[in-house]
Amino acid sequence: MMSSSSPPPPPSIPSGGGSLFRGYTKLCKGIAVILLLVHLLIQLFPSAVTYLALVPGRTIPFAWNLITGGYVELTIPGVIISIIGLLLFGKLLEPLWGSKELSKFIFVVNFATSVCVFITAIALYYTTQEESYLYAPLSGFYGVLTGLLVGIKQLMSEQELNLFVLKIKAKWIPSLVALISVIVSFFVKEFVSYLPVILFGIYMSWIYLRYFQRRLETGLKGDPSDEFSFSSFFPEFLRPVLDPIASIFHRLLCGRSERADGRGQTLDTTPLPGSDSIEANRRRERGQRALEQRLAEKLAAVKSSEGTSQDASDKV
């Protein structure tokens, strides 16, 4: 039994067959079912791709494909990756955010990513006059998946996560996924269509979490901590170059640094000295508590199964 004075075990995604298939939330399981059903619908009725996937040349008047396109997976590996990623990442984030906030996050990131991909495709068409940019179906849940990775980076940045045989800190996973995606797109032509979805998913989720998500502990919006700045996605030597550029977008999104509270007083949104690190520590602590709770549940399940086996052997 672990004493209260002993340090907690290093947080990681629990491994093992018993816990792998437990703890998934109803929200994530529901969205996983939607992904599977849409994939089956596309296989049975291929013409449905025209109406559900994001086809920039048909988005007007079929504007709903800005929402439905993210839930269309055209390949079996794609739907498997999307479902597994959603269940695993949602299992980490929903206990910290709640079902309402997670569903809002998924909707906002999916829609914002689709809008950015649509604008990019239209711009490429007018630049190159290639009609393939207008009528090639664009789809996939990867924008939301990479967005969920950004959420994990925000809440559990210093924690090591087990990725198959590798251990990597959560704060580097979105950047690593983006880098690998760019490299793969140079060698696999079919992967190029997924690249904008992945990159815009990372960026739009960061925009939402950085400036718009309401924090329950403070009642304010966004996460102004240095640990979640735009330059935190890049190596240390690039940050002096990126910070001035990021400050331009910060002023565009935030406007003036003052706003009024409910009593008519103005609040300076510039963080107080030390408040960034305090906020980041609170988020890390919440993430650590959630992971430790899952580890404790796994240990209790193992002990319970061992006790059942021992009782059975005693009876024999």
Automatic annotation (TrEMBL):
Keyword Transmembrane helix part of the UniProt annotation: yes
Transmembrane segments: 31-54, 74-93, 105-126, 132-152, 172-188
Main localization of the protein described in the UniProt heading: membrane
Keyword flag Membrane: yes
Topology in membrane: Multi-pass membrane protein
Subcellular location: Membrane
UniProt KW keywords: Membrane, Transmembrane, Transmembrane helix
GO CC aspect terms: Golgi apparatus; membrane
UniProt xrefs under SMART domains: DUF1751
InterPro entries found in the cross-reference section: Rhomboid-like_sf (IPR035952), TMEM115/Pdh1/Rbl19 (IPR013861)
Disordered: region residues: 261-286
GO biological process entries: retrograde vesicle-mediated transport, Golgi to endoplasmic reticulum
This protein's name: Peptidase S54 rhomboid domain-containing protein
Organism per entry: Oryza brachyantha (malo sina)
